[in-house]
Amino acid sequence: QVELVESGGGLAQTGGSLRLSCSASARTFSVVTMGWFRQAPGKEREFVAAIRWRSGDTYHADSVKGRFTMSRDYAKNTGYLQMTSLRPEDTADYYCSATSKYTSRWWASTSYEFWGQGTQVTVSS
């Protein structure tokens, strides 16, 4: 059983920053790609960012490019999403995801077989 544990959500003001963390618990689980998705009330889940675990190559949605940065600590098996210049439209539940298989469709939620429980981010105007 693989468990992804997220932390770091909360309340921020417009223009503020938050950092989300996602720790993969199982020793036998080898992350190939980790992703962050978000879902706002009444909206579909959308891709935010992804990282190739070994190379560190990252991908970011256009809506967060230049404001959010995904990174990882290889030794700690933990991924991070640094969020800056937050906007009210960033308000959502943020979900960490991971896959142990290579995927070229890193933006698709169906590419990930493991998911965290979600952490809420609220940005006040």
Please give a quick description of this structure.
By secondary structure, the protein is mostly beta strands. The chain contains no helices and eleven strands.
What would you note in describing this structure?
With 125 residues, this protein is an all-beta fold. Helix content is 0%, strand content 48%. The chain is built from no helices and eleven strands. The protein has strands spanning 4-7, 10-13, 18-24, 33-39, 46-52, 58-60, 68-73, 78-83, 92-99, 114-115, 119-124. The N and C termini lie far apart (40 Å). The mean pLDDT is 94.
Q: Shape from CA axes? A: globular
- By secondary-structure content and strand pairing, the structural class works out as mainly beta
Distance between the termini: 40 Å
Strand count, sense and barrel status of the largest sheet are: 7 strands, mixed
Low-confidence stretches: none
Cα radius of gyration in angstroms: 13 Å
- Tell me the strand percentage band: over 45%
Helix and strand pattern: EEEEEEEEEEE
Identify the quaternary structure here.
single chain
Q: Total helix count? A: 0
In which range does the helix fraction lie?
under 10%
Mean pLDDT: 94
Extended strand count: 11
What's the helix and strand layout?
Layout: E1 4-7, E2 10-13, E3 18-24, E4 33-39, E5 46-52, E6 58-60, E7 68-73, E8 78-83, E9 92-99, E10 114-115, E11 119-124
Parallel strand pairs: 2-11
Antiparallel strand pairs: 1-3, 3-8, 4-5, 4-9, 5-6, 7-8, 9-10, 9-11
